[in-house]
Amino acid sequence: VKMAAITLDDLYFVALVTIASAWQLATHAKRMGMSRMKFKIDPPSMEGPPEFLRTIRAQQNGLEFYPIFIVTMWISAIFLHQVPAALVGVLYIYARQNYFNGYIKDAKSRVGPFKMSVMALQLGLVMSLFGLLQMGLLNYAGVNLKMEAIRLYKSVGGPDLMS
């Protein structure tokens, strides 16, 4: 059993989210540069007043988590579906923006958005693993998880969702 080939249409939304996330990283880098100019701190120095240090940490933290975000979003888009992958991506970008802005103002303001961004990453990881499991079972064991879930749902008397 082989899965259907993926087309560019199947990746459109996740590509848009990827571009939005790249734009976000670029704006955070610009804000970091503006903070260097504001406090007259030349590269490669990483020392300065607390607002500068918070800005540099907010940007660095975003860069540290970015590979995890991109990998899980694209794998879940390819092996599961682009719409939930893109929605989780939008949630991550939203959380990261709030994290960045909050951290610059006050280090404690980053905690809630940080937790939201980690939740989005965890959700992306689960979706990636589920998509890979689904493909592996279908291709190598002939088990279709979607059909099995529908069969199980109907066997416990779940209402018809197609009506």
From TrEMBL:
Coiled coil: none
UniProt cross-references to InterPro entries, sorted A to Z: 5_LipOase_AP, MAPEG, MAPEG-like_dom_sf, Membr-assoc_MAPEG
Subcellular location field: Endoplasmic reticulum membrane
Membrane topology: Multi-pass membrane protein
Primary site of residence: endoplasmic reticulum
PANTHER family, A to Z: MICROSOMAL GLUTATHIONE S-TRANSFERASE, MICROSOMAL GLUTATHIONE S-TRANSFERASE-RELATED
Stated name of the protein: Microsomal glutathione S-transferase 2
Species for this entry: Owenia fusiformis (Polychaete worm)
